[in-house]
Amino acid sequence: MQPEVSISVPVYNVAKFIEKCARSLFEQTFQPVEYIFVNDATPDNSIALLLNIIEQYPERKENVRIVNHEVNRGLAAARKTGFSNSSGKYIMTVDSDDYIEPDTVELMYNKAIENHADIVVADIIKEYPDGKVQIECYEHSDDIETCRLNVLIAVKSPNYLCGKLIAKRLFDNELFVPVPDGQNYWEDRFVLTQLYFFTDKIAKVDKPLYHYIQYNSSAISAQSRRRMHFENAFTFWTFLEDFLSKRQVYDKYKDVIDFEKVKHKASMMISTSSNALRKEFADKYYQEETKYYSQLKKGKKIITFLNRHKLFVLSQAYHYGVCFVKSIKK
Rg of the chain's alpha carbons, rounded to an integer? Predict the structure, then answer.
């Protein structure tokens, strides 16, 4: 019998977290669930720990599969493997260092059925070493256009595949995911943006259900953007223009997309420690920057001005100044 829901779980170097994650999955109140754990050539004993936990849930055991990668391929590839091996009518992905509430699948599945929805979202709880923050999603089932706009700007609709229940039939569309093995930046955004345009029905459970574990409260802000980040982001905007043009709706979103290009390029310019990258991409989106410069916030204006005038030494100094301010605010 086809399971109603498949849960895909990439596994790599998560010995500290796999037990809590797996138990939260096996203790779901919803029964017809298939579990696909993707061993992404993990170097630790995560899989041994997982096998021990599976034995403690005999009622779930026959619905658990472990798919092995011969070499480490990265999160995006592991998720793709999980999705392609899933047979449920709906798919969820849960990162193996996160966990979910016991009624997550039941609530989201029931919401999908009641609303004939292809995608169901719920609020997320980000757990930091020093506290928790609830991230509210703003999707509303009666306003698909707002949902699509929000996913484009990635503010009111976090671009995480995690924390969402998605009809498998949406994955039957040809999804463009240009992320090579081992590189994982915006892979969720590529996929989720397409899924939002492949459906006209999105629903929401008004409850935080997914616990997103943050190892370090400053990990993301402190990350130095590398070439991979720049190239993947630029590829995304090019892809998005083509994708929306083929659907004959690009003009509707062009201004929003152009402004997002400028803002995100400025953010990457601030956060990279590489002046070589600033020099190489200084003129990227020149026309868009000219149009939207006055609308940028102060920090993004400064870095954009410095790079446009080839003042890369000052750009580097500004980068380190921002890093210093962030460090003393911890």
Answer: 21
Name which of 278, 261, 258, 280 is nearest 318 in CA terms.
278
In this structure, are 163 and 269 located in the same domain? no
pLDDT in tens, 132-178: 988 888 766 668 888 898 888 877 677 889 989 999 999 888 777 76
To the nearest 10°, report the CA torsion of 17, 185, 188, 193.
160
List the domain range (segments joined by +) for residue 82: 5-215
Contact (Cβ atoms closer than 8 angstroms) between residue 167 and residue 155: no
Q: What letter would DSSP give residue 218?
A: T
Q: Are residues 196 and 90 in the same domain?
A: yes
Q: What is the β-pairing status of strands 202-213 and 131-135?
A: unpaired
| Cβ(11)–Cβ(37) below 8 Å | yes
Cα 285 versus chain centre, distance: 24
Rounded-to-integer distance, Cα 37 and Cα 65, Å: 6
Instruction: Count how many domains the chain has.
Output: 2
pTM: 0.90
**Which helix (H) or strand (E) covers residue 100, if one does?**
strand 99-100
What CATH number should be reported for the domain holding residue 208?
3.90.550.10
Distance CA 268, CA 322 (A): 13
**Are both 58 and 170 inside the same structural domain?**
yes
